[in-house]
Amino acid sequence: MTVSSHGQAAPLSTLHLDAGHGSKQILKDINLTIPDGKMTVLLGPNGSGKSTLLSTLARLISPMKGQVLLQGNNIAQLPTREVARQLGLLPQHTIVPEDLTVKDLVSRGRFPHQGFLKQWSKQDEAAVDHALAVTGTQELAERPVDSLSGGQRQRVWIAMVLAQETNLILLDEPTTFLDMRHQVELLEMLVDLVQQHGRTIVCVLHDLNLSLQYADHLIFLKEGEIRHTLSHPSHCNSKMVEEVFETQVLAVTHPETGLPIFLPKSQQTPKASAVA
Amino acid sequence: MSRSLLSRASNTQPWSNRSRLGFMLVLVIALSGLHLLHGARAISLTTLTQALFYYNPHDFDHRVLISLRLPRVLAMLLAGSCLAIAGYLLQVTLRNRLSDPQLLGLNSGASLAVVLVTAFPIAPMFTLVRPLVASVGAGLLFSLVLLISSAGRKGLQPLKLIFCGIAFSALAGAITSTVLILDEDTLDQLRFWLIGDGAGSNLHSVLISLPFAGAGLALSLLIMPQLSAMSLGDAMAKGLGASIQKVRFFSLCAAALLTGSAVSVVGPIGFIGLICASLWRGIHSRPSVFSLLLVAFTGAALLMAADIAAISLFAPKELPTGALTGLVGAPVFLWIFVRRMR
Amino acid sequence: MIASSLLSLRSGHYSIRIHLASLLTIGLLLTALMGVIFFALTTGSEAIPLHSVLAYLHLETPNTSTTNLSHLLILDAFRAPRIALAVCCGAMLACSGAVMQSLTRNGLADPSILGVREGAALCVVALILTAPGLSLAWRPLVGMIGGLASGVFVLLLARGSSSIRFVMIGISLSWFLSAAMMVLLAATDTKDLQTVLIWIAGSLQGATWQSVQLVAILFAICLIALLFNAPSADIEALGDALSTSLGVRRKWVNIIRFSVAIFLVAGSVSVAGSIGFVGLIAPHLARFLPNYSSRYHLISTSLIGAILVLAADTLGRAAFAPVELPTGVVIAVIGAPTLIILLWTRRNQL
Q1: Average pLDDT, whole number, for chain A?
Q2: Which has the higher per-residue pLDDT, C277 or C108?
Q3: CA dist C290 to C1, C5, C285, C345, Å?
Q4: Of the ranges A228-232, C18-22, C82-86, C321-325, which one carries the lowest mean pLDDT score?
Q5: Is there a contact between A121 and C10 if contact means CB atoms under 8 Å apart?
Q6: Residues of chain A above pLDDT 70, percent
């Protein structure tokens, strides 16, 4: 059993995990521990297995071998509703039913807390209001979801996952369809959730540099294996990046945060020097 | 039968065009002969040749051959080739291999028109223009199907086309049944014809349909060069000087004429066009006179085989020919669709 | 504002949530259904005055001088069971259509184009032809086996349930089965053909209280199962991944809903024959009305289906009396244009 430093079981961890789609194995012997109250980012090139790993952590895919442990218990043996009260997920592709208002959608996040004669308790009401407030979507509450812009929509989905009131939140590439402003807004919101509200976040991201600015904990995957685990973004160096992404990079430092940034080295003659 | 054809066409060296045509022609003749000889009363080959060349009206066997079986064989030849060509034209013009006169509403439009005109005889000498009425009905209903299914941002989608075909066929079918239930005379006149049964066919209806079928065939032969240019894509066709809208319109007219003449002879029979064109690989990308003839011969052979099966499977009971083509056609539809999805 | 008309009733740990606008919709639909039922009771080849109908329903003390006893007989033996059967079958078909559409996430899914209806019909016809003497109660059972078989066949072939593939496979299976039905009918003796033909055309003529009882019980059980699963269905509309992560037991919920949908169609087909289009259009018509969640949507859909089939049946009885149009034909005349309008309005989504 994976145990964190202060003796309590880690919120989420894996033991010798093999997983894949159908009979095709993608993940090989994954052992990881997600730290409590931190934002963990999974990084890696296309096809490295990050989304598969996230899906396996969220029990969407059952492992071929090994276990996923939620608070030290095998997730496959816990009742699915029990898990749903501890672990929330925002998948990459979502379906918006027609004519559903923002508030109705966010209310659906309360499903694991409801029952046949427990349809709408005071906690349900409070959780939904809180989720709308934290994500700044209160004024959208009565609007139909399919009328919103991409950035607004993504906030609403996060509000829905927040209404689920789980300590752990898993997000699969939440910034993919957003422009730069909305990407930054969303990541700052996630950081806020970790720092102000004590949630634990696991997130698959595409953008290395944005991840380095906002993540607390980084896991690099390649070819279905964990290559590097960093407990702080400043530990990242160009050797790791070049090895994982197979691209020559140049390390610079962010002038404000002091965290590393990696720029791709151009194979062609630099344009700036040509002009000079 | 069809399987062996298929594997030949796909696996081994493709046959030369002429030998494919020749093979199909021989098959059509053989099946027609079989159909003539086969039946409740077995007739020998010598009697057949005698009946064809030295017809003796007092000989019972000769009379059976010439006045009962021959019209049915001719009807199947005509309807099979017409339906096959119509299906092929639709598939090439719509660029959708799942097209067939039955599935896209042409058959039910033709039936509805015939039933309506039988019940409310507005046209004088209706029996003479029945194929024309059927063609107009087929054309009208199909235009509606096209109109609805090509609307929308993504244009003509296979699923939409099939659904519109189903919806309009159901509507036409329901109106047809209503008329028939309310008007017993019409029902009596059209009973056999309606279920796609060859038993009702006679020489008269075949002869009347012939000019309309001929017109449809001529029209489709005329537009073949343009259709073949269109198979390279609309832009390419424009570059080659083909007027796309006009070609499409004429092609659909030809399909309506061919379907109308077929339906007015044997009633609504489905899936012939769908099955025939799918048997030959590559004919969709190279529309030509050869492809047209090949499909026509295949259609005639297929419908002939289906009709022989309809007579003999549960002899002395006779099955409706349309049911047998449906039994074969539905899986073929699925096969085409699944293969295309991959 | 419709969305804000939510009312929560709480007591201790228990809470119930009511959507007033949806409730009102259901009330109105119920009233409309009552109206159609009364109209259907009074009209027909023999017009029956309203006071006889009321006397029959024990809503008014029969006045021996004005109430015609033969009227009461007609009502009890023919009209009332027929109306009850129309209501049940309409509700069942509509309900099953709603479930099919949400399961496949395809607005064009309908039991009649997924081969389920044809599968059930083929088995029932085979039963009628091979064992004409058997009790009516066997028909729903055999129909269910047939429907389930074709449903499972389509499901296995489509591997997964939310795609065009599913619908296309269903369509071709239904074509195949109806061709098989034609062969079966042509190959058998004409002795039992009359029963079969009436049944196929989708007529409610043969309604008896026995068959009404049978399908009413079936419908009640199925509806309860569906209503119980409805919140999970709402969550499933958000996608496979989200519903799993929100704690929906997807496998079980889907198996139950899929089989209930088939039971509903098969049950209805086995007593009332092939009535098409109801399952396709009723759920869409219900979508034009305020329905907060799929619980309300299921109930409105059932009511609309009942109204549709009963209205079509009454129209078929009354419009060209004494000639009677089969209900299936009337429904198709109404339903096919509705489907066309539907295709037109969704032309950009398909």
Answers
A1: 88
A2: C277
A3: 11, 11, 11, 19
A4: C321-325
A5: yes
A6: 93
Asked whether the predicted pLDDT for residue A212 surpasses 70, the reply is yes
Number of A/C CB contacts below 8 angstroms equals 92
pLDDT of B36 reads 82
Q: Which chains touch C (3 or more CB pairs under 8 A)?
A: A, B
Query: What does the alpha-carbon distance between residue C188 and residue C210 come to, in Å, rounded to a whole number?
Result: 28
Mutate to test the interface with C, among B102, B175, B176, B181 (most CBs of C within 10 A): B181
- Are the Cβ atoms of B338 and C165 closer than 8 angstroms? yes
Q: Are C242 and A111 a contacting pair at CB < 8 A? A: no
**What would the two tokens of residue B102 be?**
């039955």
**CA angle B64–B69–B74, rounded 5-degree value:** 145
pTM (predicted TM-score):
0.84
| CB contact (8 A) between residue C15 and residue A120 | yes
Touching, C vs A (3+ Cβ pairs under 8 A): yes
- Cβ(A9)–Cβ(A72) under 8 Å? yes
Output the CA angle C268-B163-B2, nearest 5 degrees.
Answer: 95
% chain B with pLDDT above 70 = 86
Least confident of A208-217, A218-227, B316-325, C209-218: B316-325
* Burial of residue B125, with CB atoms counted within 10 A of its CB: 0-12 exposed, 13-18 middle, 19 or more buried: exposed
User: Tokens 């799918």 correspond to what residue?
Assistant: B278
Q: Is the predicted pLDDT of residue B325 greater than 80, yes or no?
A: yes
Q: From C341, which residue of chain B is nearest by alpha-carbon distance?
A: B148
Q: Do C168 and B162 touch (CB under 8 A)?
A: yes
Mean predicted confidence (pLDDT) in C166-177: 85
Compare CB distances from C17 to A80, A119, A122 and report the shortest one's residue: A119
CB pairs under 8 A between B and C: 126
Residue type, C126: A
Measured distance CA(A101)–CA(B217) in Å, rounded = 58
Nearest CB among A84, A98, A101 relative to C247 is that of A84
Domain C18-345 has CATH 1.10.3470.10: yes
**Alpha-carbon dihedral C255, C258, C263, C265, rounded to 10 degrees:** 180
Name the band, by pLDDT with cuts 50, 70 and 90, for residue A38. Answer: very high
Overall domain count for chain B = 1
Could you read off the pLDDT of A106-147 as tens digits, one per residue? 999 999 998 888 888 888 999 999 999 988 899 998 899 988
Contacts of A88 in chain C (CB under 8 A): 245-246
CA B295 to centroid of chain Cα atoms:
11
- A97 vs C238: CB contact, 8 Å cut-off? yes
User: Rounded to a whole number, what is the distance in Å from the CA of C235 to chain A's nearest CA?
Assistant: 7
d(CA A224, CA A18): 9
> Does the predicted interface ipTM exceed a cut of 0.95?
no
pLDDT tens-digit map of B207-265? 888 888 999 999 999 888 888 877 777 777 677 666 777 888 888 899 999 998 888 88
The amino acid occupying position C44 is: G
CATH code of the domain made up of A1-86+166-237: 3.40.50.300
Report yes or no: C8 at the A interface, CB cutoff 8 Å.
Answer: yes
CATH of the domain at B84: 1.10.3470.10
Q: Contact at 8 Å (CB) between A246 and A220?
A: no
